[in-house]
Design goal:
Helix content: 40-55%
Oligomer: single chain
Mean pLDDT: 92
GO molecular function: isomerase activity
Structural class: alpha+beta
Order of helices and strands: EHEHHHHHHEEHEE
Strand order of the largest sheet: 2-1-3-4
Protein name: Dithiol-disulfide isomerase
InterPro entries: Thioredoxin-like_sf
Number of helices: 8
Distance between the termini: 14 Å
Shape: globular
Number of strands: 6
Organism: Chitinophaga pinensis (strain ATCC 43595 / DSM 2588 / LMG 13176 / NBRC 15968 / NCIMB 11800 / UQM 2034)
CATH architecture: 3-Layer(aba) Sandwich
Pfam family, one: Thioredoxin_5
Number of domains: 1
CATH superfamily: Glutaredoxin
Strand content: 5-15%
Length: 223
């Protein structure tokens, strides 16, 4: 079964949800989990004012209470040049998927850990390259692809794919059944609350005749 996970590295509820996704991957190795950067706030010029900091802290505390994930409220990434633009980290994830796809979830978790716990600026291409190097990707190779028009286009395609499927918030888990969208989860949930729905989808998928199903690219979905 193919399960689409729409996320954003700078979405705090997605950071909380990462423990649920980890459990899904561990308990259901037969699930083809496709991670899509859906575009929470791409190209935003939002600065972290005192008001916006309070907004972030409010959500971060809620995520901590629900998920147990830790946050550094010092927000060391804040600077005169920082903007809450989620496109660079989304593009970095897209680059990793093109170079080392089996490590995309590991890279996503590194992005989240670096931003929320260590306070690193993951809108910075140097930081993104350092994190790619940590999972075995040459920094120069990463940087060349990160700045390429191809990766910029593929990142935008992920945002558009999210809109095409009606994804309105992150995190979202869904499947495609004969071209129809089946939402498994919209918003944060713990694994135990999702297990039944995932098991049901797996059972349904096993009944589909071999060779019949859906395939999706960054641009379209076909039966």
């Amino acid at each position: 079964m193919k399960l689409f996970y729409f996320t954003d590295p700078m979405c705090s509820w997605c950071y909380g949800f990462s423990t649920t996704v980890k459990k899904i991957k561990e308990e259901h190795p037969d699930v083809d989990l496709q991670i899509i950067s859906g575009g929470f706030a791409p190209f935003s010029d939002q600065v972290v004012t005192d008001e916006y900091r309070k907004f972030l802290e409010y959500h971060w505390r809620n995520v901590n209470l629900r998920s147990g994930q830790q946050f550094d409220h010092a927000m060391k990434f804040v600077s005169d040049t920082f903007r809450y633009d989620t496109e660079p980290s989304s593009r970095a994830l897209t680059v990793v998927q093109s170079l080392l796809p089996e490590k995309d979830f590991e890279y996503l978790r590194l992005l989240q850990q670096s931003f929320y716990v260590e306070g690193r600026d993951i809108t910075n291409d140097g930081v993104l390259a350092d994190l790619a190097e940590a999972i075995g990707i040459d920094k120069h190779t990463f940087s060349a692809r990160f700045h390429s028009d191809e990766m910029k286009r593929k990142t935008l395609q992920g945002f558009e794919f999210s809109r095409q499927l009606g994804v309105q918030g992150f995190p979202t888990l869904l499947t495609l059944e004969k071209g129809a969208v089946k939402v498994i989860c919209r918003g944060y949930q713990q694994y135990d609350a999702l297990k039944g729905a995932i098991d049901q989808q797996l059972s349904m998928a096993s009944e589909i005749t071999s060779g019949v199903g859906q395939s999706c690219s960054g641009e379209s979905c076909e039966r």
